Amino acid sequence: MNRILTIAAVSALSLLVREPARAQGQQPPTPAQSMRRQFAGVNNHVLEMAEDFPETKYNFKPTAEVRSFAEVLVHVMSGNAFGARAGKSKDINWKDWSELDAKAFKSKAEIVAALKKSIDDANATLKATPDDRFKETLEPWLSIVEHAAEHYGQLVVYYRVNGMVPPASRPKK
Fold this sequence. Notes:
The chain is mainly α.
């Protein structure tokens, strides 16, 4: 059921992207172009938050049972690292993937640098993926984008609980 809702949401987003293009006489984006844009968009938001959030609050948890801000970022990195590998091979699956250890990162600067690298590595794999593959399947990229988007929403809550406005919600100058 979750997969059906995800496919419906991506289809709806795809229509929103395609309709303005049709109205302007442009070709709608291909599935590969849409997936690359979605990956870049959500990861740019997460990266912007990683750079913006105060280092003194990187260990913040709204409750004891959830990940800290830093741990969420490392978890998103794990998804990106999975994409960089799984996008090259069909023999890898998430259940067999080892999560990156948040304790291995000692500072905000280390986490931001590692997040950037995870985005760059996944982007390289995504860009190297032949467009025709996206006509067969959107995996693993659909799951990776969905994963990052879920945690982006979680990080928005961390901002709000701390009385802060997330970068994407701030007025544009």
